[in-house]
Amino acid sequence: GAGVSQSPSNKVTEKGKDVELRCDPISGHTALYWYRQRLGQGLEFLIYFQGNSAPDKSGLPSDRFSAERTGESVSTLTIQRTQQEDSAVYLCASSTFDRRGYEQYFGPGTRLTVT
Amino acid sequence: AQSVTQLGSHVSVSEGALVLLRCNYSSSVPPYLFWYVQYPNQGLQLLLKYTSAATLVKGINGFEAEFKKSETSFHLTKPSAHMSDAAEYFCAVSDGGSNYKLTFGKGTLLTVNP
Fold it and tell me: Contact A40/B106, CB-based, under 8 Å?
């Protein structure tokens, strides 16, 4: 079946502009995650959505970052007034709600370059 | 807080040789542990996971990992490397208080030489 999809695959933007990144999770997956992967680094957790529960935003690095999710469907990560340090690959993942250990399925990512 | 240390940012092996990628973790609660692989320009793919069942976990593509609580380790091995194994490998541990949040290591780039 279809996996997690993300768009755009690449985004180049000027410093100070706003960007929106989109994630389509696997159908039926109630949980959705955003991560950031900087060059040469591991993945940093940004935000987690589970059903209708309040999202866990503890990983968002600043108030310029926000994310929304419509029900158990599409999510959008928005970065306002982008800075050069925001350049990274932004990965989205989804999973079922499995207390034995959440097996997360990742999308291909959006590579963001801030010039 | 959870943390993961992957020893060696780059490992190079010959085709047919043993692959050993090291991962050590810290956790105040029994962890769930994961290995993911990332091929160039692709998303992460789960190789295997440990969720408090058998300590020796077998994954896809002939990889396996052993959970050693006394050593706080979860090293990834494969008896015989194949050219197609060349990729970046990430070890991750779940947040004990809320199992969904993964903390990743910085990754190990595996190169396989012919």
Answer: yes
Which member of B9, B43, B105 has the closest CB to residue A91? B43
Residue B14's CB is within 10 A of a number of other CB atoms, namely 11
From A98's Cα to the closest Cα of chain B, the distance in A is 9
Q: Which chain A residue has its CA at the smallest distance from B4's CA?
A: A42
Q: What is the DSSP letter of A84?
A: G
Choose among A3, A102, A108: nearest Cβ to B100.
A102
The SS3 of residue B89 is strand
The Cα B99–Cα B74 span in angstroms is 18
Q: Digits of tens for pLDDT over chain B (114 positions)?
A: 788 999 999 999 999 999 999 999 998 777 889 999 999 878 899 999 988 778 899 999 999 999 999 999 999 999 999 999 999 999 999 875 566 788 899 999 999 999
Q: Number of CB pairs < 8 Å for A and B? A: 62
Cβ-defined contact of B99 to A102 (cutoff 8 Å): yes
In three-state form (DSSP H/G/I as H, E/B as E, the rest C), the secondary structure along A6-74 is EECCEEEECCCCCEEEEEECCCCCCEEEEEEECCCCCEEEEEEEECCCCCECCCCCCCCEEEEECCCCC
